[in-house]
Amino acid sequence: MTGAGRGVVRVEGLVKTFVDEGRGEVRAVDGIDFTCRPGEIFGLLGANGAGKTTTLRVLSTILAPTEGRAVVDGHDVVRTPEAVRRSLGFHSASTALYPRLTARETLEFFAAVNGYPAHLVEARVEALMERFGIAAWADARVDNLSSGMKQKVSIARTVAHDPPVLIFDEPSVGLDVMSALELRGLIAELRDQGKTILLSTHIMTEAERLCDRIAILHRGRILGEGTLDELRSATSLHYLEDIFVHLVRGSA
Amino acid sequence: MRGGTIGVLLRHELRMLMRDTRMLLITFGVPVVVFPALIFLMRNVESREEQRLERTVFRYAVSPELDADARSLLRRVVEAGVPRDAGVEAGAVEAARPAEARNDATFRGDPTAPPPMPARFEESTDTSDTDVLVAPDPGDARTLRLAYRADDDFSRAAASELRDRLARVRNELRDSILSAAGLPVAPERVAAVESVNVATPEREGGALLGLMLMPFVLLLLLTGGSIAAVDTLSGEKERGTLETLLTTAATRHDIVRAKQLAIALLGFGLVIVNAANLLAYVVLGVVPLPESLALSLAPFDLVLIVLLLAPLTALTASALLLLSGRTSSYRDYQVAFFPLLLVFLAPALASMLPGMELRSAVAFAPVTGIGVAIRELAVGERDFPFLAIAFLSTALPALWISRLTERALSTERLIEPARARGTDAPPGHAHPSMLFPRHVLRWFALMWAAFFTVSLWLGESLELREQVVLNLVVVFGGGSLLMIRRYRLPWRETLALRRPPALAWIAVLIGAPAGYVTGIGIASLVDAFLFPVPEGVLEAFGDVMLGAELPLWQLLLFLAVLPGVLEEIAFRGVLLHGLSRRLHPLVLCLAVGAVFGLFHVSLFRIVPTAYLGTLLAAVVVLTGSIWPAMAWHALNNAIALVPAHMGWVGVDTRLPAWSYAVAVLALVASWTLLTGGHPRRHAALQGRDT
Q: Containing domain of residue B28, as a range?
């Protein structure tokens, strides 16, 4: 094992570079460290291109780190990527659902493919549908569902295999106010169940209201990290937006 | 667990595909409906066309310059209405290919029906509205000239019909004149010809099946598989479900396997549906088969054919999946599919060329090898070593492409091109040389194509010196120069232009002859166990190399010094440099050797030259310098040339067994000198052996 406990996400000296045929080497993530524990929502706050999505993609093993290491639930993202993915649920605006499957089939597939015990899948799927209020639409094809209902199916499929770690990449992008509010309620509920939650956002209020700790990311580096109160006392500013602007300008 | 995951993924893929009703309709429904419709249409058009031709009246005009004899002949011809295929010539030339003749008749309709009566001719005075104008030839008044227009179907058919009738009547006339003049035998018995087809109908049927089977299967695998492929990766990307899938616990390997299986199953399903379709029409009599067609395929051969189709299925599935992975939308995929189709169909059609033999370099060509292997199996010929080669030649690329797809699934570009190259990310520092390792093999593939084309099309017409200059200077030298300039590669490092350790020269002096002799040993082993080289090939090769009556110094210049310099620059310089960062030194040397071997097109030279290429790559890697490799290469070629040129040895000269043992020892000594003298190592070894 790697030293990190159950459900803990630890990132050390993480660097991710891309070779772009036009521009050469691009450092999307430039040496970041943070730790996120069970029962905590850890927020990555930053503008577009700050490196939030790249960091989360490295954690979900879609991308391989160039340098440094990342450990999820005791599993190294490079050495045991499958174990990492079994331990986490990844949700983003771009993780779509299969339109030709029904809600039930969607949940069954994601539970099975993530290694949830076959004999327990059915009961798990029923329980999820009850909890997320999608039982009435269980056998409707996903492409016939409303966007709010799709959102619920999408969160349900993220937790289908009951992973200890959940990653939400800009989850409220494209949602209306009420859907976003409902989504935040669900995420907070999952935190209260003891899940480790990593969340990226560029919406200040979302970070303020939802995150227990926040890391401000800019050009691949973390400029400040801590609880909202810690960030406030470090910068002598009250609003997160001011803190963010202060740190970003200070780094320039 | 893994099999379980692939099973879950495959079921999922198939469920998704089966719910795409439009796709199912296009893939399976359309061929089932379109195929018979096309057959009906074609048969209908054909019979109507035939009827129309029979009812047609051709108009011909006669030039006033035509003399009376010619006119009467012409009248006799057009009025007689000689039935087509009436067999006027059959007595003289009995074209007795029964199977073919019957096939022809069967395809045209009922074989027992009398041959159709020809069209009628009508004389016309209006020359502007005729199909054929008959006039005396201006150069020779006794020759009839039929003027027609090739762009007009009627005119062309009229001329052809008239010409045939004239020929028959001419034969009759000639025969009657000869008989009247007292020819002692019947004129049609003079120089009578009879050709007999001795192939059994089974072999003929097998040959036909073998010819058509692979291209038929391939086309269906590609079209059927393509519909699954586009949905399964491009479609996933477009829908945004790929990222969802990639964050599940399934490995890339499992995902790729499941998708390939889905593509292969759909393609295979299409093959089955269409084969059943075709069979149903044959049984129902909608598609008439030639009567003589017989097929008796031994079950074992059938199993072998199915086995050979397996790597083909895998290759098409892998290639389609890779294409789907590399394109980001349905539209992109459709644009890229057509070139891929050509890439597959060209070698498939090549396998249909006459005279293809499996026991040749063809076995090494992916797809073509399979086609030729199936052709031979279908007529009951089993050449197991080459069947295995053909199998591997297609299976290995399938594996390789499938690895590429797995790797493609790990690259950022696959998921979301725009975001991976975020525009607000800080600017990087690109140097084109960073891209070279990824492009080097493409360049060599291009050079190989140029090299192959030159030897195929110009090989016969060029003399030795021209060939050498074209291949070595233009292809290898020019190609290397282009790559160095295009990628701004550092000269000295790329070409390993460094002073070697002094011991390296001694190693070359010992190693080159030793390498040459062991190379002969390896060639004999290949000859004995893999594919025997016919003596004639060796002699022909020797003639090409030595037959050019050049003075020895020119021979050495063109066949030893120039290859030594230019081939080393291309292979042990540019290629080795390009691959050195990506491969383990041992694999690197083998890879450089293999590519070098492939450039020596004739089959029996591939293995020995690959061996030489590997040795030379090792020399460069161990000494960090290209100079000893150049010397070794030139010396090797000189050793091959001089004794033969001087007539000291012939094609059938055999080395004594002990010489191989000595050569192996000398090679070991040379190796020790190269590794032991604290040499400056090539970049490929740096950081690896410390």
A: 2-37+201-418
